[in-house]
Design a protein that fits this description.
This protein is α/β, with parallel strands linked by helices. It has one domain: Flavodoxin domain (Rossmann fold, 3-Layer(aba) Sandwich). Helices cover 44% and strands 25% of the residues. Strands 1, 2, 3, 4, 5, 6 and 7 form a seven-stranded mixed β-sheet that branches.
Length: 151
C-alpha cells in the first residue's frame, strides 16, 4: 500500500480549515490503496519521510516565510532523506495574511533540492478560506493521493 505523508503546521483556525479539506480529499473513498499519515511538523521523523511515497506540506506564511516548524522538519531530516526520496510527488498549501512569495520560494527550493516532483500547483490562501479555497485544498489532497494509487 502506498503511503502519503501530510506534514503540517496548523496554528490557526484558517490553517485548520485548509488541513481538514486536504485530509478529506486525500482520504476520499474513491482513492484506494493509499494510507494517509498526518504528522505535525514538529513531530515528524526522518523515518516517516523515508517510508512515504508522496507528500503534502501545509504551512502558514509567517513574515513571508514557511513556519519555523516546517523548516525544522526539513532541517532535521534533509540529509537523511536527500538521496532516498528523489522523484516522489508532493503538493503544498499555504496560508498567509500578507505576502506568501517567500514561503512559496522556500518550499520550491527545498523540494527541488530533494528532487521531489510538484504534483500540482500550490494552494495559497489569504484571509479566511472561502468555499472555493476549501475545494482547492480538497482537490490538492485528492490529486496527490490519486497519483499514488497502484504503487
Amino acid at each position: 500500500m502506498a503511503r502519503l505523508l501530510i506534514v503540517h503546521h496548523t496554528p490557526s483556525p484558517h490553517c485548520q480549515e485548509m488541513f481538514e479539506a486536504v485530509v478529506a480529499g486525500a482520504t476520499d473513498p474513491d482513492i484506494e490503496g493509499v494510507e494517509v499519515v498526518r504528522r505535525a511538523a514538529l513531530h515528524v521523523s526522518p523515518a516517516e519521510f523515508l517510508e512515504a511515497d508522496g507528500y503534502l506540506l501545509g504551512t502558514p506564511a509567517n513574515l513571508g516565510y514557511i513556519s519555523g516548524a516546517l523548516k525544522h522538519a526539513f532541517d532535521s531530516a534533509y540529509y537523511q532523506i536527500l538521496d532516498s526520496t528523489q522523484g516522489r510527488p508532493f503538493g503544498a498549501y499555504l496560508h498567509g495574511n500578507q505576502g506568501t512569495e517567500g514561503a512559496e520560494k522556500a518550499i520550491t527550493t527545498i523540494t527541488t533540492g530533494l528532487g521531489w516532483i510538484k504534483a500540482t500547483e500550490f494552494v495559497v490562501v489569504s484571509g479566511a478560506p472561502t468555499k472555493e479555497d476549501r475545494e482547492a485544498c480538497w482537490e490538492l489532497g485528492a490529486t496527490v493521493a490519486a497519483q499514488l494509487m497502484g504503487e
